[in-house]
Amino acid sequence: MINNSSPQDWPEPIIRVQSLSQTCIDSIPPRYIKPLNDRPSTNSLFESTNIPIIDLRGLYSIDPNEKASTFKKISEACNEWGFFQIVNHGVSHDLMDLAKETWRQFFHLPMEVKQEYSNSPKTYEGYGSRLGVKKGAILDWSDYYYLHYLPLSLKDYNKWPSLPPSCREVFDEYGKELVKLCGRLMKVLSINLGLEEDYLQSAFGGEDIGACIRVNFYPKCPQPELTLGLSSHSDPGGMTILLPDDEVNGLQVRKNDNWITVKPLRNAFIVNIGDQIQVLSNAIYKSVEHRVLVNSHKERVSLAFFYNPKSDIPIEPAKELVKPETPALYPAMTFDEYRLFIRMRGPCGKSQVESLKSPR
Ligand code: OGA
Ligand code: NI
Question: Which catalytic reaction applies to this protein (predicted)?
Answer without folding.
Answer: jasmonate + 2-oxoglutarate + O2 = (1R,2R)-12-hydroxyjasmonate + succinate + CO2
